[in-house]
Structures are given as C-alpha cells and as structure tokens.
Design brief:
heterotrimer; A mainly alpha; B mainly alpha; C alpha/beta; B: mainly alpha; ABC transporter involved in vitamin B12 uptake, BtuC; 2 strands; C: alpha/beta; Rossmann fold; 2 domains; six-stranded mixed sheet; four-stranded antiparallel sheet; 8 helices; 31% helix; 26% strand; globular
C-alpha cells in the first residue's frame, strides 16, 4: 500500500477514534454542538496567527486553539450573565467569530501573498495533504488526549451523570469541566487541518450519538464511539481512494452518518413490538432546544 | 467616485436580508432553536445543488423550492429523531445537518463539471454582485433579481408574523398551555420552519449559507438584551440588523474586505457594546441557569 | 354537563401509569385528586387533556368525546413550560388566556384587555400588570397563571397542585377563585398535595394510586381503610378518622 495512503489512513483513524471518545463526554454534558462553534471560532485565530507569524503549522494551530478558547469563553459569559440561553450563545459566537475570520481572510488575500483557498481547506480539510510526520504528531497528541481521558475517566463520568454529587464529594467540578472543554478544543483544532471543520463537527457528534443508542454503560459507549469514529475514517479514505474524485472529508461524514442510521434502524426494529410512548409535543416543539 | 446606485441596491438587499432574518430570528431565539437555524442553513446545500442540476439554471424559483424542500426535510428528520429515546435534540441536529451538508459538498465536487456552482459563492455569498444580476423581463429591466426575491420573501414573512402573531406568541411562550387552549402548535411550528427555510434560501445567495446565521441570531439577541416586551424586541432587532448592514458595508469599503463578513462582525460588536452598556439589567431572572423545569 | 372518564389507561415504558380509571366529575363541585407520589395524578389530568396518549379508554364532556381540547378546558399545570426570561409583562401573559376564543388572525382588542385586567383584579395583581414576569415572586407567578386560566372563561378547569409551595396570601386568593368558579357552575378538578387540608378545600375527592381507590363526597371517601389502600399502609393517623 502506498505510504501516503497509509499515513493518511492512520492519521484519520486516530483522529476519528479520539473524536469519538471526547464526543461521548461532550454529548453527555449536553455540549454536542460546541464543536461546531469551536470549529468556526478558530478561523480568526488562524488568520491572526498567519498575519503575525507566518505559515508555520504549529503556530497556526496555536492561533486556532486560542481563538477557540476565546469562543468558549464568550459562550460562557453570554450564557451565565444574560437572558440568552446556550444555543443562542453558541450560534452567536459561531457566526460572529466566523464572520470576523472571513474579514481577516479577505484582508490577507488582498494584502498578503495569498493564503489561497485557505478557507476551503479550513472548512473541508485536505486529508490528502497530511504528511507522514504530521500524522506522527497528530497521533502523539491524540494518545496524550486519550491518556488524560483514561486517567480521569471516573471523574469525567461523574461530571456527566451527577454533577452535584461530584461537587459534594469534593471534586473540582469547574476545573474538570474546563479541562474537558480544553481537550475538546484541542482535538477540534488538531483535526481542522487534516479533516476540516465540517468533518470535525460530524466526528464529534455522530459516532458518539450512534454509540449512545447501543448501550447504557459508559465504558462501552466510549469504546463503541471510538470504533465508529475509526470505521468512518476507514470507510471514507478507502472509498475516496477507490472512486477517485471524491473528497475524503464529506465521504467520512457520510460513512459516519450511515453507521448511525444503521444502528438507529436496528434499534428501531428491535423496539418495534414494544409499545413506545411519545409525548404529543417533541422537545423542540416544547421549546426545550438544547439551550440551558 | 462612489457608484451610488449600486451601493444603494447593495444596502437595500442587505437590509431586506436583515429584516426578514430578524423577523424569524426572534422566534427562533425565544424557542431556543437558534442552532436549528444553523442546521437549516447548512442543510439546504444539497437542495440547491439538486435544483441547479435538474433545472440547469440559476433562476430563483426552482432553487428556492428545491433548497426549501430539503431544508424542511432536514427539519422533519431532526424533529423525528429528537422524539426518540437516547437521542438529544442537539445530537439530532448535529447528526442530520452534517450529513446533509456533506452530501451537498460531495455533489458539488463530484459533478463540478456539469454544475456551474461556485462553492465559495454558495457559502459566503456575493453581495457585491447583486446590482449586476438583473431581472430582465422582455424589454424591461426590473432591477436586481435579489431585491425582488428578498422583497417578496420579506413580504411573506411579514404577513406570517402579523397574521399568526398571537398563535406564535402563545406557542412560543407556553407550548403546553397553547395546545390545551386549542392553538395548533404543531402546524405553527412547521409553518415557522417553512418560513425559516424560505428566508435562509432567499438570503444565502446574497450573504452565503454560513453568515445567514449571523443575521438570524445576532440582532435578535442584541434586542433581547434590552427589550421588555416582544413587539419592541422585534423592532429593535430589525433596527440592529439595518445598523449592522450600513456600518458593515462602510467598514468593508474602507478596509477592502468581505462585505458580509464585515456586517457579521459589526453585528457582533453591536451585541458586545449593548451587553456592556446594559450590564446588570441583562442578567437572567432564572438565576439557577436551569430555566425550563425538567418536567 | 359532567366530565366523564371511562376506563382510561395510560402506559409509560410498557407499564401502566394509570389503570382503568372510570369516574364522573360534576359541575358546581370542587373535586380534588389525592394520592402518593407517582400515583399518576398528573398523568390523569394530562390524559384527559390529550397531552399524553391514551392506551385505552375515553373521555367525554357534555355528552361528546373530548380528544383534543379546543379551549373548553383551562389547564393550570404544576410547572409551566414557561421561559421566565421571556420579554413579556403580566398583562401579556393573562391576555393569552383570551386567545382560545379568538379566531385565527384576530388580535386581542380593547374588550379582551379589559377582561384580562378584570381577571388580574380577581387575583389581586392588577397593580402589577406592567411588571416583567421574570420579576415576580413564586406566588405571584402562580396567580398570573390562574388569572390566565380565568381569562379563558372555560367550562372546565383542571389544576395540578396549584397550592403547593405558595405563600398564605396566594393560597387564600386561589381557593377563593376556585370557589367562585365552582359557584358559577363550572367543573373544577384539581390535584392536591396535602392530605390534611382535603376536608377544608373540597366537596368531593378522588383517591388515586394507579387505580381508582374511591371517589365521592369527602366524608364518605376519606375513611381509614380507603386511605390505607391508597397510601399502601404507610400513613400514620394522628387522630381517629372514622
């Protein structure tokens, strides 16, 4: 097998698995769409980093990370200090930061040497352009993230299921939350370059949602999410490699969605016999969107 | 030096986007469905591509219908998924819109030969081209196409908002009570979603799929900070929207940057300024942060 | 005129929440529903209103089946699905009670506003009509909901623990209004939280614990034996009930 293909495959599998794992916690903390805001909020950071320090990848990622964290900070301030709810804060931060990013980008294109098609790459990634040494860094970073999750697994679990109890037994709840958010920001930013914003959002949400449908046990959910994330990468890379002109990112998203659909239908059919209760108003109609 | 006629067309177009988005955005905001607006603006992409592919043209009507239909389909799927156990509404949104959007991107890149659709234009819009894209009927030049499309869209939204005002208000404020009082909450919900899809699709050509969200959410959010009653909130959000359009355009012209990005940024700045100015008064009443009881 | 429930069963998760409930609620009478936690009291109300699906059974009002309410029932729920940060004042909320009788497209006019103010007067909140709803106390919020229901001017009133956790003044206002509704010949059915005060509040009572234990005049129904059956023997009687 081609070394490039292999390295791209490895990189994306690692990315997919790690996103799946973190995605489970994000989902359980009802912050699934935070990844959407993070991915879009990172854009101005990338542009500013470019303007200040040039095209070096690590530098750009740092800019993206800081920008993402500022986005999370903005969401937090808006949610806790105004009448606005979390969904509004997320949508607001997403669009404003992104709009600002576009302003910077067009500015760069006008004045600078043209970080051309930078935006397309930002949104959709250029998985094919993942170089082997970048894959190594990516893998190391992901292993680091997974190690932290493994060590703090019980604590994160408690954070998701019973925050008050966690506080009562003395866990630094705010710190743990911040750490979790930081890890999520990190993986989203890491994935932006290779996979793009769209894919990172999908990888954070879809495998975790599919895994959640399968079981109640957290360790199993996490494992399954990692598996689904990895499978999405495999499916995406292989299909785009064999069918030529298909961009890897979107195919990965669709693979993940197909897996979700499969799991969903399977469960749906299994429950077909039992009577299912449905309230007459869905959560959306009841005005209980995910905002808090 | 300044081409005033073009400038006025651009500003008018932006203003129409701001108006129609603010009118529906207020309802989305109060129903905690801001992110559904995000989802719809991404999900319409495959509809746009399909409409273009089937009709081979960029005229508005097939595009509007195709994209609108797909937008509604997306909403229906999200709605259906949300009612299932173990699927939260935010997960339903995320799973669905990323799939739709990915499909759209795939279609564009796969059939980029046959489909003369510029991805950048779809995503970020090209408001500057509005004055040159004219609607020509026979011999007569009727003005920029976008102005007509958005104008009609705005009229529809206005009729909807005023005609069904009390139904919207009751079902937004207390959906359970509204249902018991005999208000057709489900119908109202779907009509609202249809109108949102309409607004999104009509606006995307001008401001792009991603920045529509800015117009849907930011001016209403700014207005909510300082409004005590809904009618005031709606008027203020339209005002803030127009302000963002005017100032954003001016800034973009000065700095030679993206016009729509500039408008979004300015609306964000207006929000930040209002937030700082109101301080205490903007604090939530439900201080626990839980808001709606988990009944 | 009465509200009739026939063999009503509601199922949650494959298990019945309420089972084969049959009862008749008359007009001009204050009827209370009591039972332990999880007995299905709220579920019963919601099933009557069509807010939760009925596994079996029917509800009849005035000799006609009641499946989806169209404003003939006013509902004051336990915790509204309400957003207190909503930009609205007290009058705005009470006005919503009048929507049930306005056709599509018609906005409430002067007559409706005056009627809403009158309802606010009944609950003692007319001076606060301009207040933002988020600035109200718990008891005041409850009174606003009651005023909204009064504004609906419906023949049937269903309330879910309206007296739970309110201050004494609010409690007095609510009871007074409920008696007024009763005296004007309406059907008033209410889930009540406090066994001790049943005798003072109600004319008739329904004992519910997933099944209907008993229903009828308070004195006849509130026997030691019935209460033991309802509360599963967990009650301690401090005085002789018989």
């Amino acid at each position: 097998m081609d070394i490039n293909l292999l390295s791209v495959l490895t990189g994306l599998i690692v990315l997919g698995a790690t996103s799946g794992v973190l995605g489970v916690f994000a989902l359980l903390r009802r912050k699934a769409l935070l990844s959407d805001t993070l991915a879009h909020a990172a854009l101005p950071g990338v542009c500013i980093a470019y303007l200040v320090g040039g095209k070096q990848l690590g530098w750009l990622l740092t800019g993206a990370f800081i920008s993402g964290l500022l986005g999370i900070g903005a969401v937090s301030v808006i949610t806790h200090r105004t009448r606005l709810k979390e969904d509004a804060a997320l949508a607001l931060t997403l669009s404003v930061f992104f709009g600002f990013g576009i302003v910077l980008l067009t500015g760069i294109q006008r004045w600078g040497d043209g970080y051309q098609s930078g935006l397309d790459r930002f949104l959709f990634g250029q998985a094919a352009a993942l170089l082997p040494h970048e894959v190594v860094y990516l893998t190391l970073a992901c292993l680091f993230i997974l190690a932290i999750v493994a060590v703090l697994f019980k604590e994160f679990a408690l954070l998701c299921f019973d925050r008050d109890y966690a506080r009562v037994i003395g866990l630094p709840v705010r710190l743990l939350d911040a750490l979790l958010m930081g890890l999520i920001a990190l993986i989203v930013v890491l994935g932006l370059q290779g996979a793009g914003a769209l894919l990172m959002v999908a990888l954070m949400i879809t495998p975790a949602a599919a895994a959640r449908l399968c079981t109640h046990r957290l360790s199993l959910i996490v494992g399954l999410a990692a598996l689904f994330g990895g499978l999405s990468a495999v499916g995406g890379v292989l299909m785009s490699a064999f069918y030529g002109r298909l961009p890897t990112g979107p195919v990965m998203v669709l693979t993940a969605s197909a897996l979700f659909l499969g799991v969903f239908l399977f469960r749906h059919l299994m429950q077909g016999e039992r009577q299912r209760q449905r309230p007459s108003l869905s959560p959306l109609e009841r005005g209980q969107g995910e905002g808090k | 030096m300044i081409d005033w006629q073009s400038t006025l067309w651009v500003l008018l177009t932006g203003g129409l986007v701001a108006t129609s988005c603010a009118l529906v955005g207020c309802w989305l905001l109060l129903r905690r469905m801001a992110l559904l607006g995000d989802a719809i603006s991404h999900a319409v992409l495959p509809g746009i591509v399909l409409a273009f592919w089937l009709t081979g043209s960029r005229t508005s009507l097939p595009m509007l219908l195709g994209a609108g239909a797909v937008g509604l389909l997306c909403t229906a799927i999200i709605q259906w998924l949300s009612q299932k156990r173990f699927i939260q509404s935010d997960a339903a949104i995320g799973v669905t819109f990323t799939a739709f959007f990915a499909l759209g991107v795939l279609l564009i890149s796969r059939y980029s030969g046959q489909v003369d659709l510029d991805l950048d234009c779809v995503l970020y819009g090209e408001i500057a081209y509005v004055p040159w894209d004219l609607w020509i009927l026979g011999e007569r030049v009727l003005g920029p196409r976008a102005v007509w499309t958005l104008g009609m869209g705005t009229v529809i939204v206005l009729l909807f908002t005023t005609g069904l005002y009390k139904e919207l208000l009751a079902s937004t404020f207390d959906p359970v009570y509204a249902q018991v009082a005999g208000i057709p909450t489900r119908t109202v919900y779907y009509l609202l979603m249809a109108v949102v899809a309409l607004v999104v699709v009509a606006s995307f050509e001008v401001v792009g799929a991603i920045l529509v969200l800015a117009f849907l959410v930011v001016p209403p959010a700014t207005a909510l900070l300082i409004s005590r009653r809904l009618p005031m909130m709606i008027l203020m959000s339209i005002a803030f929207g127009w302000l963002a359009v005017l100032l954003g355009y001016a800034a973009a012209h000065l700095l030679d940057v993206s016009i729509t990005g500039s408008m979004a940024t300015v609306s964000g700045l207006l929000f930040a300024l209002t937030l700082m100015a109101t301080g205490l008064r903007a604090r939530p009443y439900s201080s626990g942060g839980e808001g709606i009881g988990k009944s | 005129m009465p509200l009739e429930v026939r063999n009503l069963t509601v199922v949650y998760d494959g298990k019945p929440a309420i089972h084969n409930i049959t009862l008749t609620v008359q007009a001009g009478i204050l009827t209370g529903i009591v039972g332990p936690n999880g007995a299905g009291k709220s579920t019963l109300l919601k099933a009557i209103l069509g807010l939760v699906p009925r596994a079996s059974g029917e509800v009849w009002l005035d000799g006609r089946p009641l499946n989806k309410p169209r404003g003939e029932v006013a509902y004051v729920p336990q915790r509204g699905s309400v957003e207190w940060d909503f930009p609205a004042n007290v009058l705005d909320v009470v006005l919503m009670g009048t929507y049930a009788r306005l056709p599509l497209g018609r906005r409430p006019g002067r007559a409706e506003r005056e009627w809403a103010m009158e309802c606010l007067r009944q609950v003692g909140l007319d001076t606060l009509w301009r207040r933002q709803i988020g600035e109200l106390s718990g008891g005041q919020q409850q009174r606003v909901f009651l005023a909204r229901a009064l504004a609906q001017d419906a023949p049937v009133y269903l309330l879910d623990e309206p007296l739970a956790g309110v201050d004494a003044a609010t409690e007095g206002v609510i009871i007074e209004q409920l008696r007024r509704l009763r005296d004007s010949g309406r059907i008033v059915l209410m889930v009540h939280h406090d066994l001790q005060t049943v005798r003072d509040c109600f004319d008739e009572v329904v004992l519910l614990n997933e099944h209907l234990i008993a229903a009828g005049r308070v004195d006849a129904v509130m026997t030691r034996e019935n209460l033991q059956r309802t509360y599963g023997g967990k009650l301690v009687f401090l005085q002789d009930m018989d």
